[in-house]
Each structure stands twice: as structure tokens, then as C-alpha cells.
Amino acid sequence: ESLQAMVEALWESGRFSFDTETTDLNAMKARLVGLSFSITPGSAWYVPVGHREGKQVSIEHAISELRPLMEDPKVLKTGHNLNYDVMVLANHQVNVQGIYFDTMMAAHILGRKGIGLKNLAVDVLNQEMTPISALIGSGKQAKTFDRVSIEEAIPYACADADFTLRLQGIFEESLREQGFWDLFQQVEMPLVDVLVTMQRHGITLDIKVLLDMA
Hints:
Elements: H1 2-13, E1 15-22, E2 32-40, E3 43-48, H2 59-70, E4 76-79, H3 82-90, E5 99-102, H4 103-109, H5 117-125, H6 133-136, H7 150-177, H8 181-188, H9 191-201, H10 207-213
Parallel strand pairs: 1-4, 4-5
Antiparallel strand pairs: 1-2, 2-3
Helix pairs in contact: 1-2, 3-9, 4-7, 5-7
């Protein structure tokens, strides 16, 4: 019921930020653990689908509810490093459309040095975010996100969607003011789809041309 209410709110908004929590940094290997969404700065939802323990939504049900929303090009989506999240969802047969804004790409175009979400939260919003290592540990002792409790995951994942939404508002204004908006919207953002397709299907190379260039 709460999933349905969230989906209705996302439809009504017509635009939102989202993030995925997974088991692996490699999007092709990653299993989906949860998704977070935000339409208003300061608030967000978390949909747990793949934690080892705790009451959650089945991944099949969540995907069936979210697919029409994620595949509607008229509903605008914002994310941080959307390449990754779109790849993960593509592996669950969700073809994300309406890709509007990538805050990592925007940060790069605007010349920022630290373009990770945690860095940007500090530099731009003056907010400290919980590092992932606080939840899963680090190095060889690190556990996968599916072993993190849902209670711990909620504030962490919600912050990802929330802060991405906040940054989008600031960066969009900067891109427009500095004359980068057309480049961003017409050249950079459409490349997300292209890169995801290349990564999922591979590419062919003309080895002779590369050898000649070398």
C-alpha cells in the first residue's frame, strides 16, 4: 500500500531524483537491494527489496509497480552517476526513459574537482553525509549492502536521493547562468543511454585502424 502511495506521488510530481543500493560496484554484477526516491528537498522514500532480513517488498512486485514510471519519458529523472543506476535497472528489464539530470556530470562540466556525492554535499551544501564504510565496513572485512539492516539503510539511502535533488536545483541554475545548459542537455545527457547500451552489449573494434593510429 505504501509503495503504491509513493508511486502515485512520483507520478503526480512528474519529476524526481532516485538512487539504487546494490551488492556490487560493478553494475553488471550488482544485485538490487533497494531504491530511494525524492521529490522534495529534505524528504525521501526508501523501498527495500533485497536485504537478507526484515520486512520488505518483493523485487518482482517493486519492479512491476515502478517500471511504467521509470519507462515514461515524460517523467523527468535525476540521479548521481546515472550510468550506474540505469545499468542496474536495465539488468532488471527496466528501460529508464526521461533521463533529465546527472549531478555528477553537471559537477564535472562546472569544473568541480571532487565530484562524488559525499564530496559535493560538503562543498556545495555544507552537509556531512554518512560514508558507506560506516554501514558495510572497508577492505577485506567489508560486507555487502544486503547484509545492512533496513533500519540503517533507510537514512543512508534516503540521503542519497535527497542530496541529489538539492544539488540538481543548484547545478541546473549554474549551468544555465554559465552557458553550459545546451551542451549538457543536448550532448552530455543523451550519452547516458549510449554508454549503458555499449557497456551491456559490448562494442566492435577495427584493430587495424587502432594500430595505424598507434
